[in-house]
């Protein structure tokens, strides 16, 4: 469990290829940057012919372990079943940044491909020397190099139990699209069989000798300060219970998990002060009222003169509440912290940043702390994994023994960082031809990421409670605030506050893109209705990007847009709505059509059909891409119809599945039709988040199509629908 990189590599012969990459680049380049010399990616070819690819990205249920293996197999000319992808271990893997933003394939994939291509070319050069024949005369198949005279040598034979270090020089070109054989195939995900048949090892299953089980006692209200702890309240409980306290952090450890739970419930802790939260009904106003800095996101033309020239002007306000990640499995982590070093087993999305942040929290050098990524319950944003890891690390340091922490359901719902509540206002002007000549978009939101940032140590609950400083990264609120459409007079403004209006929040799938796209695409539909124009044709009319136009045309074809849905029975009304998103204004293109059926009496909304046209550039694994799109659709429907964090003046009250319902199987669409637009010559831009963004707007637009009424706040609950149906 604690093998070093050197020991791992020395366990068998291997060819090692290393490279460096600036993480902040947005394109799929592998240009070297001396600033990042320490970022080495490793690719090892063992003496048995097996290949290990070391990857800083991690598998969160998106299928990237399989996709990365396909990249290596194709570029190295090795069968896919000989590839093992080792992920997220800070002692063995490269730092490729956090697994976020649908960027694993976009930013991490090219690095892995380039390393594999470099390794292949190096091996060809070695075979060329052995056979005394030009490289151009050699061929490679299944890890075997052959020459024109019938001689052959395997990769393993060339390495000969020797290690070979070489920096990526980028002179080797990756394969052209027409030469790809593994990339583009629907290879089954390698980790799924174990998950389906119950043999997959999660971090929850990990046990170490002498391990203790821990539970944290959190403040009852946000910002409450610790006043006192009565340790005598648990001194007679079984399980060798110990109370651990540092600063405002209070926890208990015991021999068994149920003993720790009992002790945490019994421990008498007194808290003082705390923050009073605004009433939920006032949340939209509270979001807008938080002091903010105005940031110009985009501006073209003269906005005032544009509106002066408009024949028709309309304005609308939109709101999306706090939402949860609501991971079905609770967060869990294990830590073994010694006096001078330690190891973490964590399901984090950012192995290096979380490792560095927790090291700062523990006052330990980062290079003395190892984080071994171990799969947890999956995530899409920042759930409780990092906080739970920090809990385990601090308690292990205080206890002097390994500690396992598994959150309860109320911990997960109450303490995970929520998806941000956001408020948006859009004003649009049409000329006499029904063209949009002025567009003014405003959004109110704090930044969307309080992830562990690698320094300070205060970006976790435990770190904050012991007084470590916190660092907020100002990202996310502006994602897709600027729409893709072309208007002669266009302004986008972000009113970025420093703090959340009510609840602790951080990244949720898509960050600000689903909220901004909900407002943009709903308002685009409102303008189309005002202009008496077809919603899809109206969007295409205001686009210049050919790939954007292509996904809208394709979803219209796929969904048979012109064939309107008909009511299934007299008590229902039906409608269809469209939505579009160019994710983050540079990545994946998605257009969707949603059909809805609304029960007039109950307000219950059903979505029998969703169509998706999807362009993420080069598609590595079509089946895996479809899986991601389907997951996006289902979760986005859940968020649009059901999800809203409930809270009172003291904190979150939706602490179970009754208080925070999510979509059930019976409410999943009967059909999710998907059209993948593969562009092998284009960069890979990912499928993990993009389809989430336009779904809520498409549902809202379908509700308008069915009822003639606009709903501008989510969720679209039966109560809200009944109100507009009256």
Number of helices: 18
CATH topology of the largest domain: Aldehyde Oxidoreductase, domain 4
Shape: globular
CATH secondary-structure class of the largest domain: Alpha Beta
Strand order of the largest sheet: 11-12-9-19-16-17-18
**Unreliably modeled segments:** 3-41
Overall pLDDT confidence: 91
The helix content is 25-40%
Radius of gyration: 27 Å
The major β-sheet equals: 7 strands, mixed
Helix vs. strand class: alpha/beta
Protein described:
- With 726 residues, the chain is α/β, with parallel strands linked by helices.
- The protein has three domains: 5-196, Aldehyde Oxidoreductase, domain 4 (2-Layer Sandwich), CATH 3.30.365.10; 204-273 and 326-416, 2-Layer Sandwich (Aldehyde Oxidoreductase, domain 4); 419-725, Aldehyde oxidase/xanthine dehydrogenase, molybdopterin binding domain (Aldehyde Oxidoreductase, domain 4, 2-Layer Sandwich), CATH 3.30.365.
- The protein has 18 helices and 28 strands.
- The strands form eight sheets. A seven-stranded mixed β-sheet has the order 11-12-9-19-16-17-18, sandwiched between helices. A five-stranded mixed β-sheet has the order 14-23-22-21-15, sandwiched between helices.
- Helix 13 runs parallel beside helix 17.
- The longest helix is centred in the first third of the chain and has 28 residues, at 104-131.
- The protein starts with a helix and ends with a helix.
Reconstruct the topology from this structure.
Elements: H1 5-10, E1 14-15, E2 43-45, E3 51-55, H2 64-76, E4 83-87, H3 104-131, E5 139-141, E6 144-146, E7 152-154, H4 155-159, E8 163-164, H5 192-196, E9 212-216, E10 225-230, E11 242-246, E12 249-254, H6 257-266, E13 268-272, H7 283-289, E14 292-300, H8 303-309, E15 312-320, E16 332-337, E17 342-346, H9 351-361, E18 369-373, H10 385-399, E19 403-406, H11 409-415, E20 418-419, E21 422-430, E22 436-445, H12 461-465, E23 490-497, E24 505-506, H13 513-530, H14 535-541, H15 546-559, E25 572-582, E26 589-599, E27 605-615, H16 622-641, E28 671-676, H17 692-707, H18 718-725
Parallel strand pairs: 1-8, 3-4, 9-19, 17-18, 20-24, 22-23, 27-28
Antiparallel strand pairs: 2-3, 5-6, 6-7, 9-12, 10-13, 11-12, 14-23, 15-21, 16-17, 16-19, 21-22, 25-26, 26-27
